[in-house]
Amino acid sequence: MRTRLLALAATILVGLGLVVPASPASASTGGTVDGDTHPNVAMIAFYDADGRFRCSATLVSPRVLVTAAHCTSGTLGKTLVTFDSVVAEAPPSPLPVAADVTAGYTAAEITAAGYLAGTAYTHPNYSNFTDLDNWNDVGVVVLDEAVDIAPAPLAPLNAADAIKHPRKTLFTAVGYGTEVRQADVGSQKPTPMSYPIIRRYVEMPGQKITPQIIQTNGNENDPFGTGGTCFGDSGGSLWLDGAVVGVTSYGYTANCRYIDGYQRIDIPVVASWLAGFLS
C-alpha cells in the first residue's frame, strides 16, 4: 500500500510516487526539462485500495515498461500510460477519473481519454522495503498494444559492479517527479509543488553501490550534479553510459534534497525476471 511507504528506518522516505487526489503532482528537483531527450520515459497513473497514484516508467520493448514494484503492487484494474513530455502545466489535471474507483481504471476509460492502457506486474520477490538485501523494488507494465517508440537499452548484467569510484560517476535520472521550489504565495520555503507535470532529467554523482541498490547525491546544489528525484519520479529510469541500470525507489528527505536510492535492474534476480516479459 502506497500509504505505508516509509521504511528503511524511520528516517527514509520511500516510494517517491505521490498520491493523486482530484489532480496529480509532478516534476524533479532541479534538473532540465526533458522535451524529446528521453521519449521512451512515460508517466503512469493507477488506482489501489488507497486511491489514485502516479509514477514514472520506461519503455524497454515495444509493449513493456519497467518501473518500481511499489508502483505496480496492489494495482486495481488497468494502468494509464502517457509518453507526453508535458502532461499539464497548470491545473486542472487532464487524467480521467475511474467510474468505479474501487475497481480502478478500465481499458475503455483510459483509451477514451486518449491514453494508453496496460497491465501491471510486480517482481515476485519484492520485499516491500523490509529487506535491503532482497529489495527487488521493480515491476513492469505490459501495454495492451505496442507503441512506435524506440525502447531504452538495458545496461549489461552487473554493469554497476564495474564502477570503482561511485562519487566520480555521473548518473542520469528521468521522470515526472515533483518540482521543489518556492510557492507563488505563502511560505517561501522550497516545497514539492503540484504543477507543472512534465518530464525532466537530472544528473547526479554516485554515493554508494550495493548488490541491490545504487545511491546518488540528489542535491541541485551539488557542484557535480544538477538535481535529484522527488515524489512522482518513482519507477523512473536511472541511466549509466546511455543505458538503463536502475529505477527510482526511495529518497531520504521530504524536500528531496539529499540521497536518492535506485533499484538496480542489472542484477541477475531482476534481469532474469524481466527477460520473461521481453522474450
Overall mean pLDDT:
85
CATH H-level superfamily title of the largest domain: Trypsin-like serine proteases
What is the total number of structural domains? 2
What is the CATH architecture descriptor of the largest domain? Beta Barrel
Structural features, described:
- It is a single chain.
- The protein has 279 residues and is mainly β.
- It has helices at 107-112, 268-278; strands spanning 13-14, 18-20, 29-30, 32-33, 41-48, 51-59, 64-67, 76-82, 86-88, 116-122, 139-143, 170-175, 179-181, 191-193, 197-198, 200-209, 213-217, 227-228, 237-240, 243-251, 259-264.
- It folds into two domains: 39-151 and 269-278, Thrombin, subunit H (Beta Barrel); 159-267, Trypsin-like serine proteases (Thrombin, subunit H, Beta Barrel), CATH 2.40.10.
- It has two helices and 21 strands.
- A six-stranded antiparallel β-barrel has the order 12-16-17-21-20-19.
- Strand 6 and strand 7 form a beta hairpin.
- Residues 1-27 have low confidence and may be disordered.
Write the layout of secondary structure elements.
Blueprint: E1 13-14, E2 18-20, E3 29-30, E4 32-33, E5 41-48, E6 51-59, E7 64-67, E8 76-82, E9 86-88, H1 107-112, E10 116-122, E11 139-143, E12 170-175, E13 179-181, E14 191-193, E15 197-198, E16 200-209, E17 213-217, E18 227-228, E19 237-240, E20 243-251, E21 259-264, H2 268-278
Antiparallel strand pairs: 1-20, 2-6, 3-18, 4-16, 5-6, 5-8, 6-7, 7-11, 8-10, 9-15, 10-11, 12-16, 12-19, 13-14, 16-17, 17-21, 19-20, 20-21
